[in-house]
């Protein structure tokens, strides 16, 4: 008895009769590759327990579950480890049967809809917060494979609650990076660092929150090279006539109090100051970390073959 059939028995006090689906090989290859199937009978009604082999988005799983239902003629019950609340609510509204052990059982064709009061509210986000972005970049640089919530909090110097929120965000965007080991939530990644970067980059944002274009240079304390200047620092690309510096938000407050004078975008500045959403130490460099530097570059600048070559150079140096 697996955790899904056990949960049915625990909450309904009915033992389903479960066996392997003998016509599994008659299904199209992509369905056989993506799902394991079992046939279950309960109260005289037969249905399929559908086990996704990998985590996927609701659009795909809805479409493929409907295809399995049409091909087999049986109601399909999705057996899921966990889903964010947005996905769960969509499945409820669309009458898609599912089981989440310990949390919710929804079998509309049997008239069953039960939930637990302990359902965890997972926020819906499209892009990750900068706290989560810093966590992921740290994982890339430090080659994390497995890191408990407490270990991640200690590494980043933040509270366990902050890391828990980061883990919630990763789950919300369906990134298969957080897992449970016993009762402990952990960062878990089995691929290489480049694969991790390629997985997370669609959810990352430009970490620059504000930019100052100055007509005259000023002295900055504890500033790092930022933007294009940081990109040039890590590659053979020649910098612009002016230098881009990166400062923290706390340093920006002091800067704003000096009433600095900015120039129009059409004019060439003496220097540019970018205010960063986070500060990530990287090899004691006097430039911001290379991946954040890449994230600050506009799509227009990335279209420049010289900039594209510089980014390729940085990526090769970082991931080989």
Task: Explain what you see.
- This protein has 13 helices and 14 strands.
- α9 crosses α11.
- The chain is of the alpha+beta class.
- The chain has three domains: 3-115; 130-203, Arc Repressor Mutant, subunit A (Orthogonal Bundle), CATH 1.10.10.10; 208-319, no CATH class.
- The strands form three sheets. It has a seven-stranded mixed β-sheet with strand order 1-2-3-4-5-6-7, with helices on both faces.
- Helix content is 38%, strand content 21%.
- The protein has helices at residues 3-12, 29-34, 58-72, 85-93, 130-141, 149-156, 160-172, 193-200, 227-233, 249-256, 290-296, 299-302, 305-319, and strands spanning 17-20, 35-42, 45-52, 76-79, 98-100, 104-107, 112-115, 146-148, 178-181, 184-188, 208-214, 224-225, 243-247, 271-276.
- Residues 117-122 have low confidence and may be disordered.
């Amino acid at each position: 008895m697996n955790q899904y059939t056990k949960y049915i028995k625990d909450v309904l006090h009915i033992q389903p009769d479960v066996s392997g689906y003998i016509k599994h090989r008659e299904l199209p290859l992509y369905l056989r590759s993506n799902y394991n199937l079992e046939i279950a009978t309960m109260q005289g009604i037969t249905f399929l327990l559908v086990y996704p082999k990998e985590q996927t988005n609701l659009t795909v799983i809805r479409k493929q579950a409907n295809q399995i239902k049409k091909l087999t003629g049986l109601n399909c019950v999705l057996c899921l480890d966990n889903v964010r609340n947005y996905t769960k609510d969509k499945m409820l509204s669309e009458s898609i049967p599912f089981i989440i052990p310990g949390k919710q059982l929804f079998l509309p064709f049997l008239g069953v809809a039960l939930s637990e009061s302990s359902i965890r509210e997972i926020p819906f986000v499209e892009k990750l917060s900068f706290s989560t972005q810093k966590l992921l970049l740290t994982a890339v640089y430090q080659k994390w494979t497995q890191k408990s919530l407490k270990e991640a909090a200690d590494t980043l110097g933040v509270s366990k609650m902050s890391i828990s929120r980061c883990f919630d965000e990763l789950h919300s965007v369906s990134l298969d990076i957080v897992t449970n080991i016993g009762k402990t939530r952990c960062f878990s990644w089995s691929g290489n660092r480049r694969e991790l970067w390629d997985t997370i980059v669609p959810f990352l944002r430009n970490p620059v929150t504000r930019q100052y274009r100055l007509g005259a240079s000023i002295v900055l304390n504890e500033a790092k090279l930022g933007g294009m200047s940081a990109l040039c620092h890590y590659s053979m690309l020649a910098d612009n006539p002016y230098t881009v510096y990166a400062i923290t938000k706390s340093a920006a407050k002091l800067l704003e109090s000096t009433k600095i004078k900015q120039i129009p975008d059409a004019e060439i500045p003496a220097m540019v100051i970018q205010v960063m959403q986070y500060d990530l130490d990287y090899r004691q460099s006097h430039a911001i970390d290379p991946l954040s530097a890449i994230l600050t570059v506009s799509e227009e600048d990335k279209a420049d073959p010289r900039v594209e070559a510089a980014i390729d150079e940085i990526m090769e140096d970082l991931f080989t």
